[in-house]
Amino acid sequence: MYCAFCGNSVQPGQNFCNRCGRSTAPAASAAPPAPAQAPPLAMSAPPSAPAAAPAYRYSAVPQPSRTARHIHTLGVIWIAVSVFRLIPGLAIMFFGHIGFPFLAIPMRGFLLPFLGGLGAYLTITAVAGIAAGWGLIDRQPWARMFAIVVGCLKLVDFPFGTALGIYTLWVLASPGADVEYNRLAKAG
Is the dihedral of CA 128, 130, 136, 139 positive or negative? Predict the structure, then answer.
């Protein structure tokens, strides 16, 4: 049985759709009103056309769930954001290792390890993001949980990382997303 408004699968006896929230029970129809009697000498108007049936957005093909609709987009965004993070990460790591000969020795002692560590952090998180994006696009079984973990770590990277982390959690950690993702991973 499917919802007449959004096409979502509905269990028998279920009164409301899980996706759109509309009632799935048939509406009780009231008895039609009795036709009005025209005065005996007056001409009656021609009968009007019957009321059009309500237009439903139902199609015979079930609509994909939110997880199925957003999984590919989420994977592409993860890869794009991570590539843009990988480039500066490698550059900072490179500058952290070659050093700056024009800086004083105490400043180099602080700056070089700091830059090397920052570059390594950016590079590692970029590689993890690329792996998460690839796994989501390929619908690997491990990718959902990995993307959730990386998405939670990305929440502190304001503003784009925060937005990506929220989008990741919205798609992959919503109720029923684990079952839906596992079904997609087995089918793909």
Answer: negative
pTM of the full structure = 0.63
Point out which residues pair with 23 in neighbouring strands. 16
CA-CA-CA-CA dihedral for 115, 116, 118, 123, to nearest 10: 140
Same domain, 16 and 89: no
CA 106, 110, 116, 122 torsion: positive or negative? negative
The number of angstroms, rounded, from the C-alpha of 165 to the middle of its chain's C-alpha atoms is: 11
Cα-based distances in Å from 85 to 28, 39, 94: 58, 82, 14
Q: Which two tokens stand for residue 75?
A: 């994977």
Q: Crossing angle for the helix pair 160-172 and 177-187, nearest 10 degrees?
A: 80
Phi and psi at residue 23, to the nearest 5°: -70, 135
* Structural domain includes residue 147: yes
**Distance separating alpha carbons of residues 178 and 67, to the nearest angstrom:** 9
Structural domain range at position 5: 1-25+57-63
pLDDT digits (tens, 9 = 90+) for 102-132: 666 777 777 888 888 899 999 999 999 999 9
